[in-house]
């Protein structure tokens, strides 16, 4: 087994992960090990696995990527894998979970911003403490640049659900299609009634597999320029999750394009998070939780 004896279960607004610290680069996981640990019946259970390590110990990174992380003053790297064992470019909720873990392990300062390397660039996480309505151990993550495609350019359907919606492509370092439902373009059920067990279908087909978000606008306060929305998500590699950080950011970007409002409190099944969008970047604010330390038995 290429895993350490002890791992930690974490979550960030219900998006849950198995995480561990690998200071020496000796514990790069295999796809089979990831699938085992993330299995909710035969393993620990999680939407993904995160190894916190040095960038030079991540085998899929090129020399140029390693130098870019180091040039961004990030000593530590979030080696994130989906529950099915596949590599993932980025996980916004995972950045908060692994930073809280890094603080406990003494490799991140609990009061200062933490620079974290990811496959989508260096992310900066600033601890905010306890903040209503977002919860405890709140971090604001600078998620960086984003790109948006043509509004409503894709048709989104869900096998087993009647109707369709129009979706907009957003590149957050990983691919998303965001469908604002219950509007003039949508004939899908209300967001709470969607059956997201089955993977949504996006047409025309996007070259790489994508995460798909389904969103309802709940309220817009024009005095404060803050909107409220509800979102559900089907993540590639793991199915429906209680929360998706990059998906929340993609949602805020699409809602801004549709309404002109740049600040959103978005409720997912795991809680409420804040998304703040500018032309240059997007920031995500939400909580993180350490659940348990687990000793793995050696067969």
Automatic annotation (TrEMBL):
One matching Pfam family: DAP_epimerase
Pathway(s) the chain acts in: Amino-acid biosynthesis; L-lysine biosynthesis via DAP pathway; DL-2,6-diaminopimelate from LL-2,6-diaminopimelate: step 1/1
GO biological process: lysine biosynthetic process via diaminopimelate
Active site, UniProt feature: 91, 244
Site feature location: Could be important to modulate the pK values of the two catalytic cysteine residues: 176, 235
Subcellular location: Cytoplasm
InterPro entries: DAP_epimerase_AS, DAP_epimerase_DapF
Residues reported to bind substrate: 15, 82, 92-93, 174, 211, 235-236, 245-246
Entry keywords, A to Z: Amino-acid biosynthesis, Cytoplasm, Isomerase, Lysine biosynthesis
Reaction equation(s) it catalyzes: (2S,6S)-2,6-diaminopimelate = meso-2,6-diaminopimelate
Primary subcellular site in the record, as a coarse category: cytoplasm
MF terms in GO: diaminopimelate epimerase activity
Annotated GO CC locations: cytosol
Gene3D superfamilies: Diaminopimelate Epimerase, Chain A, domain 1
Enzyme Commission number, as recorded: 5.1.1.7
Similarity section: Belongs to the diaminopimelate epimerase family.
Entries under NCBIfam families matching the protein: DapF
Description of how the protein assembles with itself and partners: Homodimer.
Function: Catalyzes the stereoinversion of LL-2,6-diaminopimelate (L,L-DAP) to meso-diaminopimelate (meso-DAP), a precursor of L-lysine and an essential component of the bacterial peptidoglycan.
Record PANTHER family: DIAMINOPIMELATE EPIMERASE, DIAMINOPIMELATE EPIMERASE, CHLOROPLASTIC
HAMAP family the record matches: DAP_epimerase (MF_00197)
Protein name (record): Diaminopimelate epimerase
Source organism per UniProt: Bifidobacterium breve DSM 20213 = JCM 1192
């Amino acid at each position: 087994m290429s895993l350490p004896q002890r791992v930690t279960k974490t979550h960030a607004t219900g998006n849950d992960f198995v995480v561990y610290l690998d200071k020496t680069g000796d514990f790069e996981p295999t796809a089979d090990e990831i699938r085992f640990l993330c299995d909710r019946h035969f393993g620990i259970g999680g939407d993904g696995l995160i190894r916190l390590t040095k960038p030079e110990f991540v085998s899929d990174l090129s020399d140029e990527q390693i130098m870019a992380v180091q040039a961004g003053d990030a000593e530590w790297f979030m080696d994130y894998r989906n529950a099915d064992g596949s590599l993932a470019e980025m996980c916004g909720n995972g950045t908060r979970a692994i930073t809280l873990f890094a603080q406990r392990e003494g490799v991140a300062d609990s009061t200062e911003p933490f620079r974290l390397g990811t496959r989508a660039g260096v992310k900066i996480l600033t601890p905010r403490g306890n903040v209503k309505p977002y919860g405890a151990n709140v971090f604001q993550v600078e998620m960086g640049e984003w790109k948006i495609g043509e509004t409503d350019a894709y048709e989104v359907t869900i096998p087993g659900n009647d109707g369709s919606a129009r979706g907009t492509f957003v590149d957050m370092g990983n691919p998303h299609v965001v469908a604002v439902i219950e509007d003039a373009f949508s004939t899908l059920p209300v967001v709470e009634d969607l059956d997201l067990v089955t993977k949504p279908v996006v047409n025309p087909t996007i070259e790489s597999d994508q995460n798909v978000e389904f969103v309802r606008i709940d309220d817009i306060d024009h005095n404060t320029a803050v909107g409220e929305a509800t979102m559900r998500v089907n993540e590639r590699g793991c199915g429906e999750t209680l929360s998706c950080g990059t998906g929340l950011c993609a949602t805020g970007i699409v809602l801004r394009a549709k309404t002109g409002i740049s600040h959103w409190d978005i409720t997912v099944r795991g809680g409420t998070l804040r998304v703040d969008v500018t032309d240059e970047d997007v920031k995500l604010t939400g909580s993180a939780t350490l659940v348990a330390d687990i000793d793995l038995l050696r067969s």
